[in-house]
Amino acid sequence: MRDTSYQAVMARRPEIIRRATTIDYCEFESGSIAFDYEKMMRQAAYDIAEVAAIQKETAIGATPLIELKNITRLVRQIAPQGKGARIFLKDEAANPSGSFKARRASVSVYHACKHGYPGVIAATSGNFGAAIASQAAMRNLSSIIIQEVFDSRGVCQPEIMEKGRACEAYGAEVLQLSVGPELFYMFLLVLEETGFFNASLYTPFSIAGIETLGKEVAEQTKQYVGCYPDAVVVTHAGGGNVTGTARGLRHAGCDKTKVIGASVDLSGLHMASDNDFNRKSFTTGHTGFGVPFATNPDRVDVPRNAARSLRYLDRYVTVTQGEVFYVTEMLAALEGIERGPAGNTSLAAAIALAKQMSQEEVIVVQETEYTGAGKHPSPQLTFAKANGITVRRGMPTDNVPGKTIVIPENPGQISVKDIDLDKMRYSYIRNALSQNLRPNLADIEFLAQETRLLPAAVEELANQIMSEK
Amino acid sequence: MAYARQGDWVQIYQVVLPAGERAPQVPPETMQVPLELKVKGFLLDEQAQIGQQVAICTLARRQLSGKLVAINPAYGVDYGLPQPELITIAGELRGLLRGEHDA
């Protein structure tokens, strides 16, 4: 009988992952820090035309691009003279499982089917689980979704409960776990037992699936307004949404479009803490994923993460939980579109950013997600209050993650806070050098691509970090 | 006491990792509690009471066993209570758009 202790299963990780992804990551490794990212994306996945064809088979994509005319008017009322960019929204909730994650799931499920796997497994508490279950249903595969759902009191986040319900509706077995990073241990254990495919969020399949979203944003904006968007705002968590969208935009020729990541500020809350788990109202799109995954991308369920957001981010901003709830109400009240709330993180940021941009400019919010019981501001605030969080109207700057949710009193109060990308680049390089390796020339070139710094600047930072050790 | 019959939709419970045997990187408050699992499926035993060890067949057609904790468990999701902090927002914003108030 196999040893199923935590240590033994984690030690078998490379072998389990290789069998469950069809990818031999060693092919792209250099033996040092550098690895060939573009070769991995080229060889392991499918090109954008193939991905579009795969997605068409299961009714994914070609979602509407909607001009938010009333919100734009409102922004122009409160913006300085001549300011107030046109705001557009890519309605990704129109995908089969109700979010852009259908794109992310589609290629993995297609690939699993093509290679004769009996089923697919994903470890996720979010929309991705529903997307995998939905795609698996369409391609007649079994699916297992592993969720982090409840704390040691048995208390569950309403949003995660709803996603679990959706997974079951699509025919998935849902393994509901208490709080902790050992979700990954469970994931490996079940992969090993079942021989199912690892529908990871972070394989090249997953990221290639999102590239069509960036391409559609580019093409639809051009068709609608005659030019490419000046800025695209992307809700940022593990980095896949930013990476895939930016690659798709580039593929379409959007060289000047700014890619702006937006996360809900949950600073101060520990993501593996049993106490903090139910003190947050957002289970994704927050800084608890956005910062660590950008600065240490390979901390995931595959050896090399295909989501590498620092390669693509032009700017990274945060908004508060209260601001996202406020714009969720705004979207419904002024545009007649009830979506979110987590997907509206980038909408909150776009409203703040549009105030600073000229009226000739165009800003696109690249996703929405479905809404429903549990996954809506009112159950989330009901839950927050029951867990001791204060909810009130006031200045968003008074928000304290885990303690106070402040809903803005007027749209003029919506703003973004910049996260210093240079500091994140420094953290990234420090993490990359944590094995105490002295970087060679290829490593310096790789780190320059990863951080969008010049090789000389990387070398200087690397020397500084090595001398501090 | 409530009991389930073969074929009923039920929920089982297992302790996956006991307290103290968790991953080394978890914070102290998490280390003090076990890693627990709940999963639903169709009961394979002929009949069982809450609290008994049972086997189920899941939607992915796997057989799993554990302690029976619920029979036909509720989804547990709803829209909660209408929130006073939210329900006036629509009227406020429409008023602003119509120029009834200063933004």
From TrEMBL, chain A:
Cofactors that this protein relies on: pyridoxal 5'-phosphate
GO molecular function: acyltransferase activity
Transferase is among the record's keywords: yes
Domain Tryptophan synthase beta chain-like PALP: 58-365
Record's keyword terms, sorted: Acyltransferase, Pyridoxal phosphate, Transferase
Entry's EC annotation: 2.3.1.263
Annotated protein name in UniProt: 2-amino-4-ketopentanoate thiolase beta subunit
Naturally occurring in which organism (per UniProt): Sporomusa silvacetica DSM 10669
Gene of this entry: ortB
UniProtKB/TrEMBL annotation, chain B:
InterPro entries noted in UniProt: OrtA (IPR047755)
Example of a GO MF term: acyltransferase activity
Keywords assigned by UniProt, alphabetized: Acyltransferase, Transferase
Top class in the EC scheme: transferase
Source domain of life: Bacteria
Species in which this protein is naturally found: Sporomusa silvacetica DSM 10669
Name under which the protein is recorded: 2-amino-4-ketopentanoate thiolase alpha subunit
NCBIfam families in alphabetical order: ornith_OrtA
